[in-house]
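G., before I forget:
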Amino acid sequence: MTLSQIRILLDAEFICEHGMQNSDIKYAKASDLMSDVLAFSEPFSDRNTILITGLTNKQVIRTCEIAGVGAIIFVRGKNPSTETIELAHQCKITLLTTKLKMFETCGILYTNGITGVAPGTHGNPSDAT
Amino acid sequence: MQPEALLQKEFAIQGGDFVNAGESSCMIRNTLREIGVDSDIVRRMAIAAYEAEMNVVMYALHGTMQISVYRDEILLTIADKGPGIQDIEMAMQPGFSTATEEMREMGFGAGMGLPNIKKNADVFNITSRVGNGTKLEIRIFLDGKKTRK
């Protein structure tokens, strides 16, 4: 599923795109704990993964850069600061924001084919987190 | 005796500097990518570096992080001046944390830092002196072997 399709499904807005609107997204991780994002980063190296989070600080961008996550969806209508957006520009990480809550966001994406991935499973949906 | 490093870089880390926290780890990640290190090894070392850097920022006064690339391994050393760790065995338990509310609001301090570092390292050593500081040594072998004879 492309990020543009995800945007429509979640009634979201792009904060910055980096030409990734048509990038194919396969996996998602939803967390406000950055160490969890890092711990479950195994299959996330080709930037086909999005992070769903309610945190908007710069460490979210750093964490995604380290973990190789290509895009972030901020839930509950949250918007990051100028500094966070600037860092996302530098790291070429796409940002979206949706008014939906995290649970609803996850549900919509999961029913539309996006899966979570447990460490070491390399995309086996039966081990989704 | 350790052979001479093919590449060596050192970074200063300032305790409490949440604005720039993670910058050094991203530089390490980019450096390893540029010299053609396997992407899985880059990812593991970047995660270990980032968790260690965040620990210095969150708990210590200041510290240094040094990356050394050898022919057959990468060594990351993080040494800080700070309160040290009273009970290392306890600190290694997933979920154990002494983080403040501010740290938790930033998404850290869930007690997964040291376990994450250990998980990504081939060899992990930690030493600490209470009231003085903590030193971590993280080794990842470039030939894919988990242990050395």
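Chain A has one domain: 3-114. The helical segments of chain A are 3-9, 34-39, 58-67, 82-91, 102-111.

More on Monday.
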